[in-house]
Amino acid sequence: TENTALAGVRVVITAGPTREPIDPVRYISNHSSGKMGYALAMAARQAGAEVTLVSGPVNLTAPAGVRVHTVVTAADMLAQASAAVDDGCDIFIATAAVADYRPATCADQKIKKSAEDMALALVRNPDTLATIAARPDAPFTVGFAAETTDVAHYANDKMQRKKLNMIVANDVSCPGVGFNSDDNAVTVFWPGGQQAFATESKAGLAVRLVELISERFRGS
Ligand code: PMT
């Protein structure tokens, strides 16, 4: 039977890493591949949603029928995600691994090798998810949390601080799941409940997550 759990629902998903330039040839980034976000986009689309992906630099092809806005930096991600929400958004899912800090300045020319030591001054980046969740017209918001210790504690803390409806926590210290792998294992938290999902492919997990998110969205 056709899956219509999210028929006509507008879903915006952030995915992948951001890159924060140091000079014309270097940047700060992380190991996010975009696989989790793209899998969710595919699952939401298959559930009938109108899906927009706001994606950092990744080597993935957008699922059929999904609109993609590509971005590079955390500042771009905030701008593109905000524009996508302005266009209409019922559910916002943030899977992107956004750089928390960027170099205070980006050098115009390639930085030359000289002294034995060098320091890079960093400044805080804007938080896309927290900004979207704080809007007066905030959609139903789902955050991700990549933690290496006290996963439940930090995930619940992030959900409360950023005023989210749900948070999906991955323990990225477990081998074979999280950043860049094909599989993931997560625990989802919401005010008053939680559900654990054992290791499986990101594609399979995305289908279950979309099911749970639709249930909670409908009940909200
Ligand atoms: O891309 P893959 O290789 O498939 O890997 C998937 C993943 C491990 C990246 C993904 O499952 C995941 O956990 N994403 C969140 C990664 C993360 O670093 O989260 P965080 O704890 O820094 O941030 C918490 C939440 O706020 C996230 O929803 C994040 O998207 C959002 N955020 C954070 C900082 C920022 N400046 N803007 C944000 O929107």
TrEMBL record:
Pathway: Cofactor biosynthesis; coenzyme A biosynthesis; CoA from (R)-pantothenate: step 2/5; Cofactor biosynthesis; coenzyme A biosynthesis; CoA from (R)-pantothenate: step 3/5. Its cofactor is FMN; Mg(2+). One of its GO terms (biological process) is pantothenate catabolic process. GO terms for cellular component: phosphopantothenoylcysteine decarboxylase complex. Its EC number is 4.1.1.36, 6.3.2.5. The keyword Metal-binding applies. CTP binds at residues 100, 110, 144, 158, 162. Residues 6-215 form the DNA/pantothenate metabolism flavoprotein C-terminal domain. It catalyses: N-[(R)-4-phosphopantothenoyl]-L-cysteine + H(+) = (R)-4'-phosphopantetheine + CO2; (R)-4'-phosphopantothenate + L-cysteine + CTP = N-[(R)-4-phosphopantothenoyl]-L-cysteine + CMP + diphosphate + H(+). GO terms for molecular function: FMN binding; metal ion binding; phosphopantothenate--cysteine ligase activity; phosphopantothenoylcysteine decarboxylase activity. Binds 1 FMN per subunit. Residues 11-220 are annotated as: Phosphopantothenate--cysteine ligase. Keywords: Decarboxylase, Flavoprotein, FMN, Ligase, Lyase, Magnesium, Metal-binding, Multifunctional enzyme. Catalyzes two sequential steps in the biosynthesis of coenzyme A. In the first step cysteine is conjugated to 4'-phosphopantothenate to form 4-phosphopantothenoylcysteine. In the second step the latter compound is decarboxylated to form 4'-phosphopantotheine. Catalyzes two steps in the biosynthesis of coenzyme A. In the first step cysteine is conjugated to 4'-phosphopantothenate to form 4-phosphopantothenoylcysteine, in the latter compound is decarboxylated to form 4'-phosphopantotheine. In the C-terminal section; belongs to the PPC synthetase family. In the N-terminal section; belongs to the HFCD (homo-oligomeric flavin containing Cys decarboxylase) superfamily. This is Coenzyme A biosynthesis bifunctional protein CoaBC. It comes from Marinobacter zhejiangensis. The chain holds residues 177 to 396 of 396 of the full protein.
